[in-house]
Amino acid sequence: MAIFLGHRTAELLLNQPSIGLLDPSPDQELEHCWASQLDFGHVDLSVLESISKPFDILVSSQEELRKWEGMHCHLCTAQLPGGSFIELTQDVFVASPALCLIQRAQELTVPQSIALIERFCGNYTLDKKKKSGITERKPLLTLDDLRSYMDRCHRLRGLAKMRRACFYSLEGSASPMETISRLVFCLPSQFGGFGFPAPLMNYEIGLNDLGRRIVGKDFIRIDLFWKEHDFGIEYQGKYAHSSSTDIAADIARQLAAERKGIQLQMITIEQLREQAQRWEVARKISQNLGVSLPMGKDFQFANQRLVDELISAATS
Which of 221, 315, 301, 311 is nearest to 271 (CA)? Predict the structure, then answer.
C-alpha cells in the first residue's frame, strides 16, 4: 500500500536537495489509503529519518480519516493533475513542489505563502547545519511552472489563496531575509507592506576598473535593485550575509556600487524589527523612488505585525 506525503512533511522533504530537484511522476494518482491499515513495518521510511513527526499523510475519502499515532491525515478528494507527486520509493510518494505550495497555503497567511513560494522559486534552501542557515540550490520550480500547475487544478483547497500569493511573488531570492525585506517594503499596504514598486532580485552589475579592484571580481549582485533609480538594498547580518567576512564583502560591494553611481542602503535584521529604524529606511527608499509612504496608526500596526509574522516564521 502506497503512502502519500504532503503539507508540512512535504515541505521538509523538498527542502532536501536530493529530493526537491527530482522530477514528479507524470501519471501517479492518489490511491485509496486506509490510515488504519497503514503498516509502517512493511514500508521503507528511511527517507523520513530526518523529518519530525507527525507525518502529514494524504487520504482520498472521508472514511479513511483516522487518528493514528505519528500521523496527521489530510483529506484530499480533488482530482489531481499529472505531476502531483514525486516517487521516493516504491511505496512512498511526496507532493510535488507545486502541490505542496497549494497545500501549505491552507495553513499559512498570504505573506507567509509568498515567502514559501520565493524559497521554492529562489536560489537557496534552508540548512540548519550552516551558520548562515542556508545552502545555495537551484529553484525547485518557476512561477510559470506553478501557474501552469494551478491552471490544471480544480476544486483544490488552498488554490485561491495560492493564486493570490503567486501574483505578488518574485523569482531570484537568495535568502529568507532578502525575501522578508522585499515583502516588508514592497507588499501592498493591505498586507502591511510599504507598497514600493517591485525591485529586481539579485541583479548583476558589471564593474569598472576601480570597482573590480575593490571587490576582486567583475560584477556585483544587489539583493533588491530599482534599476531606473540606481538604488538598491543590501541585507546584512544574521540569517545570511552573516559572518564578519560576509559583512566586509557587503561594504566592499557598497563602495564598488558607488563608483558606478548606484546608491545602496544596507539593512540589518535589527533595522527590520525596530519600528523607528525600519521607518527611517522606508523614508530613504521613498525619497529615492519618489513614492509616498502609507500613513496612520492602523498601517503602523499592520506593518509591525507583518514584520513579526515573517521574521518569526523564518527564524523558528
Answer: 311
